[in-house]
Amino acid sequence: MGRGRSQAQQRKEAEAAARLEHLLEEADTPRKEAREALRLDRAGRHDEAIARADELAAKHPESAVVAHLAAILHYDATTRAIDAKDRQGIEKHCNTARDFYIQAKRLAPNCVEIAIRLATARLRCHNDGEAEPEIHRALAIPVPTDPAENNVAYDLVGGKSTSKDRLEKVRKLALDRRHRIVSYVRNKTIPDDVRFVLNYARSEGVAKTVKPAKELAERYYYSARAHLTHAYIDLEFARGLAPGIDKRPFLSRILTQLNNVANQFETSLVLAMFRAKLSFLLGMYIAMTAECFRAISMEGPADPWDDDVPPGSVPGEKSEDMVSSICKELERLQKKLAVVAIDYWQSLTK
Fold this sequence. Notes:
By secondary structure, the protein is mainly α. It is built from 13 helices and no strands. The protein has helices spanning 2-42, 46-59, 64-83, 87-107, 112-124, 131-139, 163-204, 206-219, 224-239, 248-261, 269-281, 285-296, 319-349. Helix 5 runs antiparallel to helix 6 and helix 9 packs antiparallel against helix 10. InterPro entries: TPR-like_helical_dom_sf (IPR011990).
C-alpha cells in the first residue's frame, strides 16, 4: 500500500511538473517569437521583421517584450526614412513607434530603458511636448528593473553582463539623454514652435491664433516661454479691439492665467515683468510694486534667453546683460507709478 501511494504521489508530482513546464513554455512564447522577429531585422529583412512584430503585438497585447520590440523596429524604420527623406515612411513609423513605447511603458513601468526610448521617440513626433517630462520621469523611477527583462536584444548579445552592470549603463544613458533632450527642446523645439505661432498671427490674424497659442501653452506646460506666448497673443487680441470696448476684463483674464502658473516659474524675470506691467495697466499698484521688488532683488534668476517672447526680444548679448535690461525696465515702471502718484496727489490739492 505504501509503495502504491508513493508511485501515485510520484505520478502526481510528475504531472504537476509537466503542467508547470508547459505553462512556462507558454509564458516564454512571446519572447521566443520576438527574438525570431529581431533576427529577421538583424538579417536586413526589415519590412518582414516589422510585419511580424506588429502581428505579435496584436497576438500578445500584454507582453512588454513584444511591445518594446515593435517600438524599436518602428523607431529604426523612422531613422531610415529620415535618412532617405521619405516623408511617407516617417509619418508611417514615427507615431507608431511612440505608441508602442507607451504601451511597453504601461506594461513595464519600472523599466528605465523603455522610458528613455519613449522620451527619445516623443522628441521626433510632431506636436508632442512630453519628451522633456518623459526623460525626467525615467530618472525618477525608484526601483528600476533589469533592462534585459523587457528587451530581447540582450538575448542575442554575446559575453556576460550582470543586472547591476546593465542598470548602471542605462542610468548613465538616461543622464546623457536628459541633457541632450532638454537642450534640444529648450533651444530648438519650443523657440521654433513659438516663432511659428507668432508668424501665424502676422499672416492669418491674431484672432485665428488665440487657439494655437493656448494649445502651445498646454503642450509645453513646463515652459514659461510657452505660457508667455499664450499671454502675448491674448494681449495682442485685446489691443486690436475697437476703441470703445473695455479692455480691462481681457487684461484681467491674462493676468489671472499668468498668476496661476507663477509659482511654477518663480525665477522667470520675463514672466515677472509681464505680470508687473499688466498689474500697472489694471491699476493694481500694490501688486505691481511687490512684483517689481521681488524681481529686482531675485537671486539666481532664470536665463531670460529661455523665456522672452518673441525669442530674442530682450536686449543683451549675455544672460547678465538681459537680466540688467529687465531690471532697468522694471525700475522705469516704478518711476511711471511715481508720476501717477504725483498726478493723483496734485489733483487732490487743486
